[in-house]
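User: Hey, quick favor. My workstation is busy. Could you predict this chain's structure for me?
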Amino acid sequence: MVSSSHPLATTSARRPRGRIALAGLVGAAILLVPALASAESDSHYHHHVWGKTASEREESVELRISNMHKQLHITPAEEPAWAEVARAMQANETRMQDMITAREAEPVHHVTAPEDLKIYERFNQAHVEGLQQLRVSFEALYTAMPDAQKRVADEVFDKFGNGHD
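Assistant: No problem, here it is.
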């Protein structure tokens, strides 16, 4: 839940943006680091993302990219394919942030339940499209990996999916 001192707190003069933005950000987290979606509670994740500036979020994406690069033991020969994975991750973060920024810039008004669902749907559609782009780029990388490295990648993603760090 958003605290009353948080910039997304809902008052009678503000629309309930927190739920919508959080849904979009959870989608972004799933695109970028599946562990965040399954390992952290919504409020914990909400605090970590919304408490950061755009610059800090960009640094966070770059840190996740760097960490995954290390975990997957990307070789020099794999760098071109890895660059596509990193671009997809960066593009997904940018797209979600752009959607959130646009949503926050809209005039304040009461959001009806159907409007709320449409907004949630748009964030989820963007999430699915981004996930598809990430999957395609990652499959190209994965296909080129030797079997031992594929097992490492499988373990890394298995840990994410099971909520382990």
